[in-house]
Specification:
Layout (H helix, E strand, L loop, with lengths): L6 H19 L14 H6 L9 H22 L7 H4 L7 H13 L14 H31 L9 E3 L2 E6 L9 E6 L6 E5 H32 L3 H27 L5 E2 L5 E6 L2 H7 L9 E5 L6 E5 L6 H16 L11 E2 L4 E5 L12 H15 L4 E5 L8 H17 L3 E5 L3 H9 L3 E9 L4 E8 L7 H7 L4 H11 L1 H84 L3 H19 L6 H12 L19 H25 L3 E3 L5 H18 L3 E5 L6 H19 L6 E4 L9 E5 L1
Parallel strand pairs: 5-9, 8-12, 8-13, 10-11, 11-12, 15-16
Antiparallel strand pairs: 1-2, 2-4, 3-4, 6-7, 6-9, 13-14, 16-18, 17-18
Helix pairs in contact: 1-8, 3-5, 3-8, 6-7, 12-13, 16-17, 16-18, 20-21
Length: about 750
Amino acid sequence: MQMQTDFETVTYLLALTDQMRLAQADPALTFPRGDIFDVREAVARIRVEGLFLDEAELDSLRRTLDYTVQLENFLIHLDEQRYPLLRQLPPSGNENQTLQALVRTIDRVLDRYGRLADSASPELARIRREMNNLQGSVGRTLAAILRQAKTDGFVDADAAPTIREGRLVIPIPPGYKRKIGGIVHDESATGKTVYIEPQQVVDANNHIRELEGAERRERVRILQMVTDELRPQTPLILQGQEMLAEVDFLNAKVSLAETLHAIRPELINRPMLDWADARHPVLLLHYAPQGKTVVPLSVRLQPDTNRVLVISGPNAGGKSVCLKTVALLQYMLQCGLLVPVAEQSKAGLFSQLMIDIGDEQSIQDELSTYSSHLRNMKNFLRAADPQTLFLIDEMGTGTEPLIGGAIAEAVLHELVLCGALGIVTTHYTNLKHFAEQTPGVVNGAMLYDRGAMRPLFLLSVGQAGSSFAVEIARQTGLSEQVIRYATDLVGEEHIDYDKQLQDIARDKRYWENKRQQIRLKEKALEERIARYDEQMSGIKQKKRELLEEARQQAEDLLRQSNATIERTIREIKEAKADKERTKEARKKVEALKEKVKTTPKANTKTNAKANADTNAGATAPKVLRDFSELRRLSKTMAKEPETKSNLSVRSTVRQRTLAFERTLDLRGYRADEALEHLIAYMDDALMVGAGEVTILHGTGTGALKQLTRDYLNDLNRQRRKRGMAALDFGDGDVNHGGAGLTIVQL
């Protein structure tokens, strides 16, 4: 990453970073996460015929290729309107299908733990099957011999088979070594134990060693075969690595932007700077963990109006921080990084940044502080142009104030004439006067609370600032006699000028606060009016809906009434002189009249009530239920299912805790059986909260030990993804099993 000066390049870098930020924040998208390994060296090495990737390298390549495929699929299916640049990151063509084919090729020979699977070839499966059978047979034979030796009192009761020189042996005291026929492979350091390979298993162990050699040869053959299939695609694999690197770098930029609350400001294709609420990124990173905020700065430089800003103010008031904020943010921006500024900010580009900040004195180069500043000024004047941004801290200091201020003013005058844009900080009064009198140059002040005698770290543009030298001297405890003597030396005119600056700064801060309060109240009033307008619109709509509903009900009732009246008249006519039936019909009509009176259309009170409810903002529907539909649920009934469940869980945990043993013996099991026992055992160990457990797998061929370690590593990867602490594990004590044990700290 380096500073760019081309407008199109910076625009592309900023847009690409911003699109990645938006994609990661999009709730409709799930950004793929996976493993990324740097496989460039290994892949480049296999370009040489005869070389091949080992199992670990092949597993790293497989996981990297798998993530590359996922990432490419994700990127190419993004919305073209919202994420056009991200869609262009994957290479075009059929590369994705080729990478998928490579993943399938590797999957044919590796298991989920990254080791060659038995199914990698029929020959490998045969060798391992025969080896497992022999190892099981040897283990059972040794166990029987050891049991008999314990019965006969030849060995200790806690003796167990172990590995010496790659062969399975049993430990026996030297006095009994002739009681058990076999080959002595080793003895302990104290000489109190010898390790014997019984004669009954010598041939089997020899055969196992032969099978191990055959397995190694078959493994090499398989790895060479797979590498030969990968070799033609090494350019494509390396191309995928480049894409992963670019996406990883974009993720780093986005992570920084999220931490800094940074944005992409509007980019202008000319030298200018218009930043609102700019914040120093290092201060943000420093203060964020402490919960503190950084005082923002607003800075504006324009070629046609205010090209140069002269900032004055007290020491430790934030002048240098302001200068460094501008320098660092402009450099970040032209490197393609999002910057911590407000949304309305605009930024231009500069062809060069010229910075003179700090003390660059050098004994070796015989440079004093002032000499180093002058050398920088010489370089500035030689190279500055309208495309330059210069930043000078404490301009003119380091020498006699009168001549130092004069030289500083002369240099600043030349920089203004060449059209460069810049910011300088100073205490010199002549530079403040220069800014007031020169077109294109403006004064700025770092504000200071004279009442509380503390800096506010706020930049105010338009007026020079006071150094508050007298006030600070008085606060530090300098005697009034010394202060009066000093003020007499500089004269009343200078003191009055400094006081006027202080008064102006105080008044400006007062009116700025007033204006801010008015602005906040106006904003709150506008929000309240908008909220009222929205509520009134909803109320009017609800009123219209209620009236329409009432009208519809009235019309429906009227139609029903007409139909009932017509039917009643017909019944009266048909009944003729039947008085009883006539009375019944008249009762129906009278009841219908009463019902019509209570309809919303016929009843003005109902309409008035509807209008009153509407005007009062009653918008929620009323839900009516007969109380006969409700029944009381007792507390016992409500709590009973949860109580039973809790009792069941506690009972299960208590039973498993009581039955749990802190040692798991995997010896004599096949790999799949051992893995099944190991998974169930670790589940129980974690559930009951065992502090430390021992897994006894023996040494043997190392297959059970490798299986155990692979499973524990896989378990730790899963725990880390969930934000959980990893388990610690390692070999047992050399005097108690050593490499034949795995101790797991939970």
